[in-house]
Amino acid sequence: MSLEEMVERVLRGEGLEMTELHLVPEQKKPVTRKNTCFAVCAVIFNSKKEVLMIQEAKSICRGLWYLPAGRMEDGETIVEALKREVKEEAGIDCQPITLLQINEKGQNWVRFTFLAEKTGGSLKLPEQENADSLQAQWYDRDCLPRNIRKPDILPLIDAGIKYCQSPWFNVLQPVDLPCDIVCQRFLLAFTSSNGNSDEDRLWLLLSNNFQLPVEVPDEAQMLAFTPKKLVKKCMPSIYDQLSVNTCGILGVQHNGRVPGKTDGVCLNTLVLLEYKEEEGEIDLSSPPKSENDCFRWHEVTNQRLKTEILRTIQEGSVLPVQTA
């Protein structure tokens, strides 16, 4: 597969098989519900544009309201976990429309929030309460219960409303590709511009075998910090002059069907590298030189591909991320 084909697949959210695990041999293997917690969350609206809420049954938050959510189990894919949690907590069947947002607290805790739709089943009634939930109800966004478990669901509901009204990124579903570690693959770009978009130049940071670089996050630093670690590794002498901006997620790769072996996830991430300010004799017409022999810059000369990458950066048409 050519470099252009690989980049196009990543831009389309299709993902790539893992080929550069040799770069991160020290990574411990994640095991679901033991040293790693992947969670799912659902934003579902009915025909009245009301959002689905469930009332918690757990002792620490009993009686409080939240979106249907929970931890993935051994052997589940992300979508299977979503459907199971919604069924258990709300009583309905659902189908994911698109990933809506990713929240993370480092490589050991990642939550995948979906915009989804009801496809069957019946809303859970109070007399059906069990250990999963007490009941489920539809609520208008302006009339949500006062006793919400955490306010972190409010921006998720708002994002769902916004996406339904005007999608700002293409429908994105997890790709069923196995991964035995938690990692990020980067489409890390540098651009130069003279004010004429047709003449903008674009470079991508690649490994020496012309693959998109794959890095392992630190224990408590992931989506926003791992690309900074990569850039610092490549350009240590001028790192302080650079701004490393995580634009968002282009794709999610996961297959948890073999517990203890394929519990990892790869997040394909779009990153823009820029100079902070024009200081001294900085050459803005080309990317800063890589000081690491393992990485190099490659200029994208295919006009169609270059235009697509620049459009994605400028429009922010990527899956949002939120680091705790």
Can you walk me through this structure?
The structure is a single chain. It is built from five helices and 14 strands. A hairpin with a 4-residue loop joins strand 5 (92-104) and strand 6 (109-121). Helix content is 18%, strand content 31%. It is an alpha+beta fold and 324 residues long. The protein is elongated, with a radius of gyration of 21 Å.
- The number of helical runs is 5
Sketch the major β-sheet.
6 strands, mixed
**Structural classification:** alpha+beta
**SSE succession:** HEEEEHEEEHEEEHEEEHE
What ranges have pLDDT less than 50 throughout 5 or more consecutive residues?
A: none
Give the termini distance in whole angstroms: 37 Å
Q: So what's the oligomer here?
A: single chain
**Helix percent band:** 10-25%
Shape: elongated
Which range does the strand content fall in? 25-35%
Computed Rg: 21 Å
* Count of DSSP strands: 14
Mean of all residue-level pLDDT scores = 91
Q: What's a concise summary of this model?
A:
The protein is an alpha+beta fold and 324 residues long. It contains 5 helices and 14 strands.
Please tag this protein with its features:
six-stranded mixed sheet, alpha+beta, 5 helices, 324 residues, elongated
What is this structure's SSE topology?
Elements (H helix, E strand, L loop, with lengths): L2 H9 L25 E8 L6 E5 L9 E2 L2 E3 L6 H13 L1 E13 L4 E13 L13 E5 L13 H13 L16 E11 L8 E7 L6 E2 L10 H9 L7 E13 L10 E11 L19 E5 L3 H13 L5 E3 L1
Parallel strand pairs: 1-6, 5-14, 8-12
Antiparallel strand pairs: 1-4, 2-3, 2-7, 5-6, 8-9, 8-10, 9-13, 11-12
